[in-house]
Specification:
The complex is a heterodimer of chains A (about 325) and B (about 300). Chain A has about 325 residues and is mainly α. The C terminus of chain A is likely disordered. Chain A has 13 helices and 2 strands. By secondary structure, chain B is mostly helical. Chain B has a single domain, classed as Orthogonal Bundle (ABC transporter involved in vitamin B12 uptake, BtuC), CATH 1.10.3470. The mean pLDDT of chain B is about 90. Classes of the chains: A mainly alpha (about 325), B mainly alpha (about 300). The interface between A and B is large, with 52 and 56 residues.
Chain lengths: ~325, ~300
Amino acid sequence: MNIPRFRIPDHARRDAAFAVLTLALFGAVTFTFPGFASPRNLAGLLDDTAILIMLAMGQMLVILVRGIDLSIAANLALCGMLAAMFSRAWPEAGVAPVLALTLVVGGLLGACNGILVWKLRLPPIVVTLGTMSVYRGAIFLLSKGAWVNENEMSRDFLAFPRREFLGLSLLAWIALAVAAAFIVALRRARVARDLYAAGGNPEAASYSGIDPGRMQFIAYTLCGALAGVCGYLWVARFAVAYTDIALGFELSVIAACLIGGVAIAGGVGSAVGVLLGCLFIGIIRSSLPLVGISAFWQMFINGVVILAAVLLSARQRDFKRTILESLA
Amino acid sequence: MKPASLLRWESMLAAVLVIEFVLFSTISPYFLSVDTLSDATFNFTERAIVALPLALLIIAGEIDISVAAIIALASVAMGLGAAQGLGTASVAGIGLGTGLLAGCVNGALVTLGRVPAIVATIGTMTLFRGAAYAVLGDRVLKDYPDSFAAFGQGYLIGPVSNELALFIVFALLFGVFLHKTRWGRAIFAIGANPVASRFAGLPVNRYRFALFALTGLFSGLAAVLLTSRLGSTRPSIAQGWELEIISMVILGGVSVWGGKGSIAGVVLAALVFGLVTFGLGLMNIPGIVMSIFTGLLLILVVAVPALVNRR
């Protein structure tokens, strides 16, 4: 089966439908609160959603190859703590080494997940549940439970994601660039087509010379590297690092992917859909205070979104895969 | 099922248990006293009570990672009931009922909704924990009736706490159910090959639904015990317990691929786990460091059989 030719039209249709839904949500919020559509507010919305977008792109790769990464937020937090401690120790070093450090460490943490799933064929859920708590615990060991506060971070370190170009923060620009790169690469790059093939039908993929395990490894590593860089961006943006940052954020990321049309059974999903999924969640999150609902509802809403998305996709694709099943 | 290799796994766990005893009694002279050991059991009883039905669920090839969130939701429901001035029996009933209901939601999603267990329970985990936060926010509920404390703080005879007694009774019941009844055989069959089981005439989805409901009910029971022991409810109650409960089951020799496992193994694993937690506590090691250990243990336990099988 020629995967690109058969799947993309389906997907374009789903993405278009979801875009309409997202626009309708946006329209409804704007209708009730006209200030919502102001350029300033939209720039803020994008800034708030930027990290979610980047993480969701990484998570999408993992889900495409029939995996799941629950350790993504713990990876982010660990790399964020590393970045903050690096900045405290070498305040003059600038941003480039911090970015390199978090990219490499995040990638290695992701590769740990990947190697366990690839070489030992362990179930992704068990592996990443395990590494999630290992990475979280490692932050505590590293920081001895202490916080790194704003006054301990260098000025460059803090200013980097906040720099503004054309009304948008650099953080938002980075997220848009990552999203654009994913949109193009998932259609054009050979490795991306291999990812889809490995997730869609691992057996067929391996007959055509693609090692599905290796593709899983690549997906986890890329996802980890993105999470690592997001760790620095998160810490710089919120100007504090401690053990529990981004606790439970993996659930928002998974929610964004699932509502964006990434099928948990693997092989199906698009970067446009995921971007829309993130914006959808971002719009809900930023309109909650306007409607007068406390932020404590965010998690509940994520749960509703995840369940709605998986129920709908289970109806669409009438086949079920037991979750503890790995690649044959 | 390979009884010989299972036996080896369980005797290995028993050996670890003995080593722990020796180690901790040399570290602390107070360890080998009846009171200390009785206290130590509180480190695992609540979790182990959920591990029993979860073991059955994992043997049947499914998984439930929403168990800790169910505990939180049930605890919040009980707290609200208690704030209305309900008595001990009704409060406990609310806890069990909420757990059962939550378990039925999971079961319905997997059987009727045809959603894979992992995503279904990631969703309900978010939903249930989210509901606990949404209802409670940063408040604490602690208007429990005085007699409510008996569940988690009371003792049945001498040093045997109510929690421990409950765990022992249920461990026996689950052991007999899984290993001696036709329903237990069916659970192994479903885990080993659901399609063949369906063709053999087993109502696979009915089993799945019942096991999810059972796991929910026991999560509700754990919520009653935990809430009674703590005497208060916060939405973050039992945070991260899903990891520890699943680790207990897997450490007990239950295969993550389904179709293999024993209650004896899970009970031994619960003891090993509880003693390690307690021992690390004796050495003043904080809980978050303990979670590194739990995480590594979980990965190791699934990795070792995978490594052995590769050869």
